[in-house]
Amino acid sequence: MSLNRDLVDKVYRSEKTTLIEAEHIAAYARATNTDNPAYLDPGRPGGVIAPPIYSVVANFGVLAQ
Question: Exposure string (b/e) for 48-58, b if CB count within 10 Å is 16 or more?
Answer without folding.
Answer: beeeeeeeeee
